[in-house]
Design a protein that fits this description.
The protein contains 7 helices and 7 strands. The protein is α+β, with helices and mostly antiparallel strands and 237 residues long. The protein folds into 2 domains: 168 residues, Roll (Chitinase A, domain 3), CATH 3.10.50; 60 residues, no CATH class. 30% of the residues are buried.
Length: 237
């Protein structure tokens, strides 16, 4: 099913077999370094001081420690308030004479990903997926498991601000299986809670890769920025 807008990517293009496996990622950040993060947590999340966190993870396996650290990172992300921050502060350079589209996009994508993670309230998973929680929800709001149908609103942009697809513009949310999307979405959706709105910063290898979408609108090696709202999980309603 193709969207009526010529500049839009089709829903079918989003429904790709994921490059990743959709498992919850873990964060390799050192425990003491992560425990020292000083951002105040949201009242939606139970607060746990550094000493209590260290005591809780002492003696468990490295894998379990890594998962606990990542869950702490998620709590920190949900408590961080970006306010009216723009989607990103990156301005792509001009394309050089003779520089191919693929080489240009790969170059600015690398620069963007390395700089963007330094912006306030932007966090990164081990895969390289970057995200910012724009609106958090409490722990009673469920998260989808891999393969569940999700209902979302979203808008996707290239780094120059070109919007290539938007359910908002069509005036209706979209529904699709959570495990048959680009890898960045497959990773993000199980981390989100219904009612949340995130900004996703997706490197080319977690998006449409070296091919892009042949014929447009996404060029090869393009980094993407998505606003993504998880509205519901139809199978649980």
């Amino acid at each position: 099913m193709r969207l009526p807008l010529a500049a839009s990517v089709s829903i079918a293009a989003l429904l790709l077999t994921a490059c990743g496996n959709g498992e919850t990622p873990v964060d390799p950040v050192d425990t003491e370094e992560e425990a020292a993060v000083g951002i105040e947590l949201s009242p939606l999340e139970p607060e746990e001081d550094a000493d209590a966190f260290r005591a809780r993870v002492e003696g468990i396996s490295e894998e379990e420690q890594a998962e606990a650290i990542f869950q702490r990172t998620l709590r920190t992300a949900r408590g961080c308030e970006p306010g009216d921050a723009p989607l990103h502060a990156f301005v792509p350079r001009d394309r050089a004479d003779g520089e191919s589209s693929a080489d240009y996009n790969a170059s600015i994508a690398d620069q963007f990903i390395s700089e963007n993670v330094l912006q306030p309230c932007v966090f990164q998973t081990p895969s390289g997926l970057q995200f910012r929680v724009e609106r958090a929800a409490g722990p009673d709001n469920p998260s989808p498991v891999s393969g569940e149908i999700v209902r979302v609103h979203y808008a996707g942009q290239l780094l120059d601000g070109t919007e290539f697809d938007s359910s908002y513009a069509r005036g209706a949310p979209a529904e699709f299986p959570s495990d048959r999307l680009i890898a960045g979405w497959v990773e993000a959706l199980p981390l989100m809670r219904t009612g949340e709105k995130w900004t996703l910063y997706i490197a080319p290898e977690l998006g449409y890769g070296a091919r892009g979408t042949p014929g447009g609108p996404i060029p090869p090696n393009a980094a993407l920025v998505f606003q993504l709202e998880l509205l519901g999980i139809p199978g649980r309603e």
